[in-house]
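As the next step, I selected for study one protein, both as residues and as discrete backbone shape codes, as given directly below:
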Amino acid sequence: MPATLTPTMTDQLIQDENDHIVQTYKRPPFVLVHGEGSTLFDSEGKPYQDWVAGIAVNALGYNDARLSQAIQAAATGLIHTSNLYYTAPQIELANLLVEKSFADRVFFSNSGAEANEGAVKFARKVQYEKGLHDKTEIVCFTGAFHGRTMGAVALTPKEKYQKAFMPLMPGAVLAEYNNLESAKAVIGAKTAGVIIEPIQGEGGINVATPEFLQGLRDLCNQHGAVLIFDEIQCGLGRTGKLWAHEWSGVTPDIMTLAKPLAGGLPIGAILLTDTVASAMHAGEHGTTFGGGPLVTSVGKHVVQRISQPEFLANVSDVGDYLMERLAELNSPLIKEVRGKGLMVALELTLDVSNIIEKGYEHGLLMVNAGTNVIRFVPPLIIEKSNVDTLVDTLTTIFAEA
């Protein structure tokens, strides 16, 4: 496909999408065709400064020369063998993730939802191995988003995502985010695991307090439950540390990863301790494509770059600047600015959908996190000059609103 298309060609593509793709997404009326750094271009050459990054995926931005070289090099080797055989890239990425985290072992999947499904299975299997066959409940929290597969959506307490697909996985138990008394009321003898995002993404960029996470750690220890941190959106450098839970000093038993792990290629991962892993035996979980040699080869490149101290320091620096500049916006529409690193929320007093639509007109890509929150999860290579452009443009949009 050429880098630019005629308006007629663009219109035909959009019509074909409407005719032939299941309509589960509401897309703006343009077609993205290429990118450079933190800027995307549509089929008619219009640039858009990207504050979405494929929903916190494209950490290294677009047309990154080293990432492209890593993909090309990986494609000259094995692309797929299945998990029936050893391949070096999978083992090397697992080694790297273990080296840079609390974990002893890794299980690879294809997506974040799959990683969370696996984490739930692992937590329940730990209890089953102990002979505790009725210890099956999984505690989740208000505002959570863990995926759209049947187990993960049962742990995503939003009627819009759940209602039409009942009955969901049994055993999901809800507590209030950042409310330790609420958690104490439901974590007990039947709790197999507790799953939480250290910073909620879809739920509105809500940051768990260190005290809350430590309280959950203590409750899990007390009741023999498995503590699962879902870092699919907040992990891998997004907050200015490699793992979001590092800010709290609290360590989980399982951590799930996905989004930026392979630079835009589909991958998920479950990181776990030996204690949890020892409950799993051959044939009890599996995946055909998960951890294939091409995607894990690219994943190794991405993790090596993101984990560099200077890379993470820059995320913190630009993230702090983003929070400062957003706080300077003088508009009665703004209720709160919150977040960590380059995972920031701008909560407004109104539905943000029209603001996002206006952004398209002004060359900004933004995404919501609930009705009243604009979520900023840009490429981690974004610069302070991009922040200035964002704030200037938002000033104009708010004045129009």
User: Anything to note?
Assistant: The mean pLDDT is 96.
